[in-house]
Amino acid sequence: MTFPTFIAVDVETTLNGNEDVGLAHPMHPDNRAVYVGISDSSGKAHAYETFHTPGLAEIAIGGYTPYATYCGHNFSFDMLYLFRLSHKFKHVIQKAKIWDTQLAEYILTGQRSKFSSLDELATKYDYPLKEDKIKQYFQAGLGSEKIPPEELIPYLKQDVEVTWKIARDQYKIAVEQGQLTLIETQMEAMQATTEMMYNGLHINKATLDAYTIEVVNEFVECKLNLEELVKDYVEDINSPKQWSQFFFGGKKKIKVKEEVGVYKNGNTKYKLVEKMVAVKPFVDFKPDPDKVSAKTGQVSVDDSVLNDMLDHTFNVEAKNIAKSLLKYRELSKQLSTYVQGLSKHLIDGFIHGKLNHTATVTGRLSSTNPNLQNISNNPIKKIFISRWVGGLIVEVDFNQLEVVALAHVTKDKQLIADISAGVDIHSALYEAMFGRKPTKEERKPFKARTFQLIYGAGAKAIAKQAGCPLEEAQKFVDVFYKRYPLVGAWHQDFAKLVESSSKYLRDKEGLLEKFKTCVHTTPTGRKFVFTEYYNDSSWSPKMYNFSPTEMKNYPIQGLATGDIVPLMLGVIYRKLIDRVDVKMLNTIHDSVLFDVQAESIGDFILDIKEIFQNTHKYYEETFKHPLALKLNAGVSYGENWFEMIEV
DNA sequence: CGGAGTAGCGCC
DNA sequence: TGGCGCTACTCCG
Description:
By secondary structure, the chain is α+β, with helices and mostly antiparallel strands. It contains 22 helices and 23 strands. Helix 4 (101-108) packs parallel to helix 7, helix 9 packs antiparallel against helix 12 (316-343) and helix 13 (401-410) packs antiparallel against helix 14.
């Protein structure tokens, strides 16, 4: 087998980051690479001390063949340090191919290996483990600069050499399993997300400060109001448990003073005793039985229950309290998660969130520290602005990406035709159900049913979510399957395929497992793992069964946001690599965020739209089979991430 | 006092 | 029984 020219890299760093944000944060100004370990093309490691000999590592890495594939474990971490260390590193590595052993392992195992450690892989591939002695320095919070070099250097070299060997082993398996192409596209996507993490999102401090004051004021007012309303009933308004007891009753623990005797001086002797007392419900309203937790028996007091209660009770006081609580929850979320949560990640005016490639079962990316994929769509988004004076934030979204993925996977002719012709499938389905076109207000909630169905929901789940009769939800499912028959056929056939190709695997001790497992490989090389669940419901005679929703959804979500989007992230990254007027900032499943200089905006919008519209070409070129449909994209831009104008 | 589990809620 | 991550509370050791 011919291998790429692998060059393994590993950095040892200080550990000065903020505890909240994660120690060793690669973008924290107090952190730096202390040692860089680099292998040659045969896997032999060399170590360089960055402080005393800053030029050495640079020369080493720059002096190797331009055809090298740089590899590391959790490599974006090392890359960020290297980028900060020298522009030469940044230039060389960004132009090259990379191989992250953590990401490769994730793909090779059908997303079962998540955030693996180098030691886990060393165990699996049969290479030496890290020395305990060194691990203890790190666990004690000591950065690499505090570890004696004669101990650290051999450790660093071993990590580099082990990484190099694992990369080669993985490469071989990738070829054997037909996953090399997918892995290569994922590595390109990692180049893109590493660039995004390096760039960070620029924050408008003045807007953040003003918004903070606004939210704090609203929050305090709302909090005082709510506390006044329930001062006799609920001690902690943040406690769902207490709210549940208040609204719907239950058992409450209280502490009571109990006489346990008399002191010698004649005073009564007391002891605090915990007692359970029954609490009467405050409202005469019983929520849906499935709003009761199976595990704790606690009645939910979430948003849907409170709104349901508002519609069904005549208790004015309870209504006021519920309304106030809903408002309080909203403001509390804003303040804690977004205003305060985002603020603590500010570094020199930027937020450098982390994009994770090995976090999900479907192959989607995830985002942490902070999560930049769930910023609420309200004025908090105004704080995200361009890094350039007059610059613009640009967001490009795939149009109905998951519907396209569904059409591609199921090959349903009508669905393909509808999307290709620009037919609004939600309107079409509505008309098929009710005999007329929906109004704008009718269309919006109706649209959610289609997504539910794609996510794998059956009639029951749709009815519950939509708050409509079961018959209506069943009719929707029937209408959907009638218009798009191959979707229904695929749902059935795929479930059968999973069932029939599943086996009892063996665990680490070689014993047969209790649940059957199916490992399914898609045409892109993506593997999905399905495992049986214990089935305690009466509708099926089987003890164990596969989750219908997982089977319906994984291949769709995986293709759309696990295969196609990362492929395009890599493509876009390569197209933009030499441009200084555009920066990639973030990706949110079916969209990509950019920072663009003002004078480039017109051309950039045209360019990026064209790239998105050519997704089918890149897909076919890469995976050697056609995508059933062309994709389209919507572009919006603005001075901040909230006030965006659609092009 | 810290870790695990739960509830709730933000996004696609 | 679609996929995530963050904050707060609760329980337990």
